[in-house]
Amino acid sequence: MSETESVHLRPHRVRLVCWVSAAVLFVVFSLLATTLSGATGNGYGSFQRGDQIAMVGLGILGALALLIFTRPRVDATARGVRVRNLVGSYELPWEVVRGVRFDRGAPWASLELHDDDLLPIVALQAADKERAVEGVRALRRLHQAHQARLAEGATGR
Questions:
Q1: Nearest-CA neighbor of 110 among 96, 95, 125?
Q2: Pfam families under this entry (predicted)?
Q3: Whose CA is closest to 125, among 86, 98, 80?
């Protein structure tokens, strides 16, 4: 394993669903905005241009809220791993990682840390099936290579 090898992973299926859903949401709200005209029903008020703009704005905000789910990512090198989840980012050296877990039935993989914490890796989701498994294997290879370098250093070779 070379010092320059790196792994960059993002969820695949969820990103596709989020982008399509965001586009559909924006289009639906935009179409609804075009239908907002005339009286509000009982004759006391009427829809104005500002109501149409507000409806498009709501569509944009809803689409942006959906796109937050495309944020997860994991980047790993020989030195450590950087995990970005929906909320929060973590940059950890391999020294604090005990292992990479992907338990049966778990929605995503996780890093098991030496202080017995589990750090979820939302970028490696079970929905991505083989892509997620390959991603976990790549992270495990990097972690094992780091462990081997530590063992070499301890024996003085």
A1: 125
A2: bPH_6
A3: 86
Phi first, then psi, for residue 151 (nearest 5°) are: -65, -40
| Domain end position, chosen among 29, 52, 69 | 69
Neighbours of 94 (CB within 10 A): 21
**What is the 8-class DSSP label of residue 94?**
G
0.90 exceeded by the pTM?
no
C-beta atoms surrounding 42 within 10 Å: 6
- Give me the number of domains the chain comprises: 2
Q: Which two tokens stand for residue 30?
A: 């935009």
Assess whether 137 and 100 both reside in one domain. Answer: yes
What ranges in 114-156 are assigned the alpha helix state H? Answer: 130-155
Separation between Cα atoms, residue 33 and residue 59, nearest integer Å: 9
pLDDT digits (tens, 9 = 90+) for 50-91: 888 999 999 999 999 999 999 999 999 999 999 999 999 999
116: containing domain: 72-155
Same domain, 149 and 81: yes
| 45 shares its domain with 97 | no
